[in-house]
Every structure is written in C-alpha cells, then in structure tokens.
Amino acid sequence: MLNEQQIQEVIDDQALRLKALKSNDTVLRSTNYTYLVQTPFISVITGVRRSGKSTLLQQLTAHFEHFYYINFDDERLFNFQLDDFQKLMLLFAKRGRAKVVFLDEIQNISNWERFVRRIYDEGYKIFITGSNSKLLSSELATHLTGRYVKTELYPFSFVEYLHYQSVDYSFSDTKTKSLILKSFDDYLQNGGFPEYLKYADKNQLQNIYEDIIYKDLIVRFGIKNAKAFKQLSHYYFTNFTKEISYNSLKSILGISNTNTIKDYTSYLEQAYLLFECYKFDYSMKQQISYAKKVYVVDNGLRNSISFRFSTDMGQLLENIVFLHLKKQYGDVWFYKNENNYEVDFCVHSNGIELYQVSYHLENDKTRQRKIRSLELAMQELKTDKAFIITYNQFETIQTQHGNIEVLPYWYYAILEEKQFLALH
Questions:
Q1: Pick from 113, 15, 13: which is nearest to 68 by CA?
Q2: Which of the four pLDDT bands, split at 50, 70 and 90, describes residue 64?
C-alpha cells in the first residue's frame, strides 16, 4: 500500500507532464474520437506497448474541461493496491470536481476492475488503457460485461505515417505521388512505432521488444524456460507470413510438449506482438486443427530483431496488408482449396472479400496461379469481390466470376482512409 503523500506526488508530476505534452502537436489516429467521448460506456484502449495508447488518452483529455488522470506505468506506483484507489479518488477530489477519469496502463494493478465497476456505477465517464488483451478481456468479461467499448491501437498505419511526416496525400500532382511512394518505401521497411519515427534509432525498437518479452510476458506469466520462449518468438518473427504447425515447432525448438508451444504463442498474441491467421473453413474444428500463418505487429520491429533476406519485400508487403485488414475487419483468414490453390486473405464484410498480395505482378506462372486461385475461390465462395494488392501496379482483370482489381497498397490505404473520414 502507498500513503497519500506518495500518491499525491505522482498525481502532481504526471499532471505537469500531461500539460506539457498537450501543448505539442500529435498525430490524430484513425479512430472515432467523437464516439469514444460521447459513449456512456467505459472506453477501453488496448494495444502493443509503445503504440501510442497514452498519447491517444492525452488527446481525449482535450475534449473535457475537468478530468482526473493517472498513469500506472510508473515505478512509484509499484506497490499500489486495491485499497489505494479510494485514497486516489479523495486526492483527485482535492484538485477539483470532475466526473471523467483516465486510467493509463490499468492492468498493472490487481483487481482494478472492481474499482472501475464501482465508479462507473457512481456515474463517472471512464477511459482505460492496457497492453495485454487476454488480461483485460478476462477481467472485463467477469465484472464489466456490456459496460464497455473496446478500441485496439496499433503502431501508425501508412496514412498516419504520412500525417506524421507531413506528406500531402491528395494525389494533386506527380511530385506529391512520388513523395507518397518514397514514404511508402520507408514505411514498408521501418514500420510505424512512434518512438522509432521520432528518434530514428533501431535500438528503440529492440528495447520495446525486450521490454515486452521480459516485463510483459516472462515476468508476468512466470515463464521458467525463458530461452525456449525467446527462441520461439524469434522463430515467428523470422518466418512470418508462412504456414506453421505446433508439432513442427516442437521438433525445431526442442520443446517436448505441444501445449507449451500453444501457451507461449498465446502469450505473444496477448501482448499484440503477433497474430495467428487461420485457414478459412465453415467448420471451426477444421480451422483450429489446420496449420496457421503468423503475422507480426510491425515491420520495423520485425526487421530490428530477426534475420533478413532479399526476398523479404513480398513478405513485408503481405504483413502490412494483413495488419490493415485486421484493423479494418477484425477476423482475417487465408483460403486454400483441396487442390492447394491458395488466396492470401479472406474477410467478411457484407459478403466475402478476397485478397492476394504480390509485390510485382509479373506476366509469369506466379501471376497465373494467383489469378487462378482467386477465380476458384470466387466461384467456391460465391463472391465477386477480389483484389490483388501490389507495390505499385494498377490493373483490372476480367474473369467469368467478376473483375479482379489490382491496386498498389499505398493507393488502397489512402482510399480507405478518405472513406473513413467521410463517415466520421
């Protein structure tokens, strides 16, 4: 437990830092700020460490004249316990009356959900952030069912990256288009972690990765075989976008129990370091039993810690397309029929949409197979919505099942952003 003086010191110091941060320009994220501010429910913001959750919270404070704020990712609050929440509210009240509370990195405090439920019932508007999806979800489901809305935050998308770099994306002239493509080259390699973009130091990315592995996972989950856990994570980051089975990983890494692989993979997913992509099948059992593909949260993070090869450009493009679809639609699958014709991604939004990814769509066997795979999937899944996402090619391919639109990712991402802004 902490005494009131200790908590007061943290409140005062963080209030000063928050005031200084609010005076700086920050990139607005592609999220619906108005909805988060106006909804009567608890606003829960989750995402990978250092993706900008605290900055988003600080941006949201600008919508309120009076509010309370505390960030629990502060070593002075290491011994903060459930009983200290009442002291916190009393100290907040001394600063002035408010009915809005911002609680940053709340997952660091045991039983926090009981406190949040109580003040929610007392009529407070609450915003919370956390860096562990499973931890937050289990606690929210237990005590706050039906009382919250959830926003998942990732490192900067490509359009957010353009905002950060102050690059115009109106397609107004040839020079603007060349700047967009140059920015895309940088983004494809370096990703969108705000901290890296600020300092251009890849040591920052390595530090983020190590903090997540050790502080958020090995320590939190009490992982005893830390070496095997780190090797598994490194294997995933090196072999991203490829099909992987737990049994094969067990042999490669020398881990005797498949359940250990499953648990370790789950921990990495909970920290938003990586995402498993399942094969599309109307049978859930078939989805679960088939090999998975793995995608990682950020290209720059991946490139800072894993082995790289000249063929990675296609994988890097595929990874950012997956992240885009994941943010847009939630569930993303890959599709493969019984003859092993494969489509990279399948999503469901007012019907099924299919996506292939090809860095260069050349006139060769690879092109024909990608198109043929889309045609078969369009026929089998009864959809005419199909796309091939490229580095910088436009084309419309006519088939008997509908047109396949070939678009560069940078163009596709900007169009989607403009549609989002038009709606919000």
A1: 15
A2: very high
